[in-house]
Amino acid sequence: MSLLKVRDLVAGYGDTNILQGVSLEADAGKIVTLIGPNGAGKSTVLKAIMGLLKPRGGSVRLAGQELAGREVEEIVAAGVGYVPQVENIFPSLTVAEHFRIMQASPPADELARILSFFPQLEPRLGKMASVLSGGERQMLAIARALILKPRLLLLDEPSAALAPQVVSAVFERIVAIARSGIAVLLVEQNVKVALPLSDYAYALQVGRNVLSAPGPELLEHPGLNDVYLGKAPVPGESSASGGAG
Ligand SMILES: Nc1ncnc2c1ncn2[C@@H]1O[C@H](COP(=O)(O)OP(=O)(O)OP(=O)(O)O)[C@@H](O)[C@H]1O
Ligand SMILES: [Mg+2]
Q1: Which fold has domain 4-229?
Q2: Which of 70, 210, 223, 240 has the least C-beta neighbours within 10 A?
Q3: Which of 9, 10, 13 to mutate to test the pocket of ligand 1 (most atoms within 8 A of CB)?
Q4: Cα 156 to middle of ligand 2, angstroms
Q5: Cβ-proximal residues to 5 (8 Å cutoff; 6+ apart), any chain
Q6: Domain locations along the chain
């Protein structure tokens, strides 16, 4: 059974429903990626799972437990970690202070375990986050989310605004985090880097599932360009809607 099962998720802002029934699954130890054009609703899916946005329909189950309708605090306590798309660190705090302000200040061995994923942060613990490189900032944002020991980690466009060689370094770390037993649900625009590393991937178009397949297969899917051009994707061998199988 999948750790995360999202079924027919409906959510939106004001009078508008952005998500029109999105379904997806994610598993411990695996990377599942959500792709799609700007405005498709990718970030909205993560916010609705996290409870920042109350789902208006559908279900969000984590290990069988219903999260839809719960408060953010309860969803965090259930084991969901979240790294938002932008502004995900505090420039005026040191790296070490990012860890100390978390609800439960981590014991030294736990901090060492987290830093083992990001060794380049260790010599920077006393530095202000504002002096970190773009890649180091993204690594800090992810490391901070790991403090609460999530079973499911939601990452919104970790590659945004990073140089290509830095993107590979960040993704290599994300793979290591997943392989340590965490379910990673990734939102990405950078399909060429993300899909080859994704165990499974879903494409969204205007708030709906349109394609899904193992990551490398989705990258080669004949309908993928249409998804980004706003056309109905041509059918291929992969399934047209949710269900990681
Ligand atoms: N706080 C908000 N209030 C009203 N509408 C919003 C809000 N946030 C997002 N939207 C709208 O919801 C739709 C989906 O936005 P969302 O941010 O989920 O897209 P996305 O797929 O993450 O896009 P991008 O690739 O640009 O990050 C867009 O039309 C957007 O304008
Ligand atoms: Mg987004």
Answers
A1: Rossmann fold (3.40.50)
A2: 240
A3: 13
A4: 7
A5: 25, 59, 60, 61
A6: 4-229
